[in-house]
Amino acid sequence: MNLYQTVDSTQTVLRDGTIKLHDEAGFEGMRKAGRLAAEILDAIAEHVVPGVSTEELDTRIREMMLDGGAVPATLGYRGYTHSSCISINHVICHGIPSDKVLRDGDILNIDVTPLLDGWHGDTSRMYFVGEPPLKAKKLVDVTYECLMKGIEVAQPGARLGDIGAAILEHAQNHRYGVVREFCGHGLGRLFHDAPEVVHAAKAGTGPELKPGMFFTIEPMINLGKPWAKILKDGWTAVTRDKSLSAQFEHSIAITETGNEIFTKSPTGKDRPPY
Ligand code: MF3
Ligand code: CO
Ligand code: CO
């Protein structure tokens, strides 16, 4: 089987394990979906305040997606019934919006994926509720740095494992745990496609990064041990040791000369405080 498949933007693509190499129209589609996703994360910031429920945030997010001409890719995805994932404090990822309200000092991740004109813009950021403890803010800062260090090494000719190596090294320098159970992923017309982008890897391993590849990098970093478990709802992933966890996610492309981030905040609000 071929490892790579060159696709054009009109083609039906299958989840067949191949790494898709996209054309310019694919880049255009991802720029629009990624920009909408980033604008939604920008706009939600002012609503992240004590007393607001995660369901209220999810409703606003759904409305913004629909207003932007998109649909929430998570709605109905594998039985998921919400328009975002909202993961508070020791929740690693896939927190389900509910009537739970935000409290002063919480840190949370909001993860959105609008599907716009057939393209998926997948991105998440951390938010502060009021003034979290210094330890929590430091974890959030280092997690953002982990994402950006992963993106820095995502260059044509590099290997996929270089990304996870860069992330792991930075997290370990701070004695943080890198979650292994969840990965970044190829995306485009498909939400979750090859390759799996692991966040703890060995440099020089894995497939070569080639221009036209689209994938996410979305490291989840724990203040304590890396171990995760999933709650009985079948979605919510939490740290086993109940330590705080943080995550940032961008959707990127490999280009001829480096990479392009599709989900950068147009207003520079890529990390808190906003
Ligand atoms: N947006 C998540 C990701 O980064 C996936 C969420 S799937 C859901 O890949 F069903 F939990 F919403
Ligand atoms: Co993702
Ligand atoms: Co996501």
Topology:
Layout: E1 4-6, E2 19-21, H1 24-44, H2 54-67, E3 71-72, E4 84-88, E5 91-93, E6 107-112, E7 114-116, E8 119-120, E9 123-128, H3 134-152, H4 160-173, E10 177-178, E11 184-186, E12 193-197, E13 214-217, E14 220-222, E15 228-230, E16 237-239, E17 245-247, E18 250-254, E19 259-261
Parallel strand pairs: 1-2
Antiparallel strand pairs: 3-7, 4-6, 5-16, 6-9, 7-8, 10-14, 11-12, 13-18, 14-17, 15-16, 18-19
Helix pairs in contact: 1-2, 3-4
The structure holds 2-amino-4-trifluoromethylsulfanyl-butyric acid and cobalt (II) ion (CO) (2 copies).
Summarize it.
This protein has 274 residues and is an alpha+beta fold.
Please describe what this structure looks like:
- With 274 residues, this protein is of the alpha+beta class.
- The chain contains 4 helices and 19 strands.
- The chain has helices at residues 24-44, 54-67, 134-152, 160-173, and strands at 4-6, 19-21, 71-72, 84-88, 91-93, 107-112, 114-116, 119-120, 123-128, 177-178, 184-186, 193-197, 214-217, 220-222, 228-230, 237-239, 245-247, 250-254, 259-261.
- The longest helix is centred in the first third of the chain and has 21 residues, at 24-44.
- The radius of gyration is 17 Å and the shape is globular.
- The model has no long low-confidence stretch (mean pLDDT 98).
- One cobalt (II) ion binds next to loops.
- The site of one cobalt (II) ion (CO) has 5 residues, from loops.
